[in-house]
Amino acid sequence: MSQALLLEGRPAADAIHRKTAERVKRLRERGIVPKIVFIRVGEDPASIVYVRMKERKAEELGIGSDTVVLSDTAPQEELLSLLKVLGKDPMVHGILIQAPLPSDMDAIQIVRALPPEKDVDGFHPINMGKLLLGDPSGFRPCTPAGIIELLSFYQVDTCGADVVILGRGNIVGKPLAALLMQKGPKANATVTVVHSSSRDIPEHTRRADIVVCALGKPAFLRGDMIKPGAVVVDVGVSRVIDPTNPRGYRLIGDVDVESVSQVAGKLTPNPGGVGPMTIAMLLANTVDAAERLTFNAS
Amino acid sequence: MSQALLLEGRPAADAIHRKTAERVKRLRERGIVPKIVFIRVGEDPASIVYVRMKERKAEELGIGSDTVVLSDTAPQEELLSLLKVLGKDPMVHGILIQAPLPSDMDAIQIVRALPPEKDVDGFHPINMGKLLLGDPSGFRPCTPAGIIELLSFYQVDTCGADVVILGRGNIVGKPLAALLMQKGPKANATVTVVHSSSRDIPEHTRRADIVVCALGKPAFLRGDMIKPGAVVVDVGVSRVIDPTNPRGYRLIGDVDVESVSQVAGKLTPNPGGVGPMTIAMLLANTVDAAERLTFNAS
């Protein structure tokens, strides 16, 4: 049996980074330095690593960045007034609040306090609404946008394709469905969203040309659940206890790689597939924000 | 062969109107008169009729209303400044701009100028975004919400059901998909959105427990495209030339009633199905707006 072609995220992300660096150069020639501010609340070790990765990549591309760290005992008002200050600062084009927030903070209220035109993570309701309406003046959330650009890079045509999305979260499932069902390039798919209440999940996945797994259920999708040649995108990440690993756990995706890679035509590795695309889209969105704030005042 | 049960809109709409009238009574006891302002631009005969129907029903329920008519040569700025005035008026809880607008007006800009907390039609991007995110603090657009309440009235359970929506418009298809895929009551369906670029439409409609037709293609859905016992909701409306009709045309839906009613278990008539629900949801949203502006200042 043949093995699925692996859709590595790195080359696709690098192609976007190269374009982003070009755009930064043009902005800098006009005296504009695109800038993103990262906000981290508390000292979650994974968050520290993620923010550092993003800072480093921003610097590489010529994008300015600041990181503001709040104590996890800081009152929510402190974060809200910080957002107000950054919202008014004309030198700041993008703002990213690193998840997770402390559980006593009201994430919905905080996201609504982000100025939508600097919400480069794409989570403000007005940006979500523009996504559903097909209005390109908002920001696409980074992971769904990254999936679309990854498929496009590897010339997987979504037009007319049956796409089945496993999972209806606000970060991946629902915004990806909204993007893929639009009329237009890199979209135009027949989209089905499957979730915990769906009756016969294999019946849906077996008829799909493209299956996107964003459930967070380790090795959920098996080879007998897909049709031969299908394209499989693995987004979910779960921690599984592993005493042989120095960290005591390892990260695994939603796809049972051994069986799926025998049936699928193409498969995104996880890690190494969608992950690198997410940061590429974040920085591309930041440059979008800078271009919009520079070239049109509307 | 048996005939499909007809899901008449009138009794379901009346049940909502009765609840709305009760809620209006409670608001009036506290000195609040819920009020909606209808804005009509130009003298489109159908728009005149629609606005008059809505005014009359509002009055019946004890909801105050004003209708502002602008000339179809009025500059867009006039409409925008009217929206600003109405947005600030504490006596106005809901604003409805009757479609269609003159073609030289920018509908996207006008909808964005609506204050979201008075957008009882549910078309502002922030309300669309809340819909997709599952945030109940916005307004559900009237036709999709009406479909959901119509199904609920006739005890059609959407939880776990395979729902296929024909059409991806911003008025019905996309917002209805967003509503039905949420976790929670009157939702929780496995939703597929099918459209002009979909490959094998009958393959999708034949596996559906519920088919919603919102294409605007006369008599598109035939009996051989659905499974026996399916529930069919007919939303589309097309004008078909008919010299025997005094108006010279008649209105027909997306469903070929003769063949579908032999196969479907339940079918909404058109007209007389979803139509009456739309106005019921508009006035219920207006009372929602008045309750929110009265009981919580946030």
UniProtKB/TrEMBL annotation, chains A, B:
Residues in Tetrahydrofolate dehydrogenase/cyclohydrolase NAD(P)-binding domain copies: 141-292
Any one biological process term the GO annotation gives: tetrahydrofolate interconversion
Ranges annotated as spanning the membrane: none
Signal peptide segment: none
Pathway: One-carbon metabolism; tetrahydrofolate interconversion
InterPro entries: Aminoacid_DH-like_N_sf, NAD(P)-bd_dom_sf, THF_DH/CycHdrlase, THF_DH/CycHdrlase_cat_dom, THF_DH/CycHdrlase_CS, THF_DH/CycHdrlase_NAD-bd_dom
Subunit structure: Homodimer.
Matches recorded under PANTHER family: C-1-TETRAHYDROFOLATE SYNTHASE, CYTOPLASMIC, C-1-TETRAHYDROFOLATE SYNTHASE, CYTOPLASMIC-RELATED
Name the UniProt record assigns to this protein: Bifunctional protein FolD
Organism, scientific name: Candidatus Methylacidithermus pantelleriae
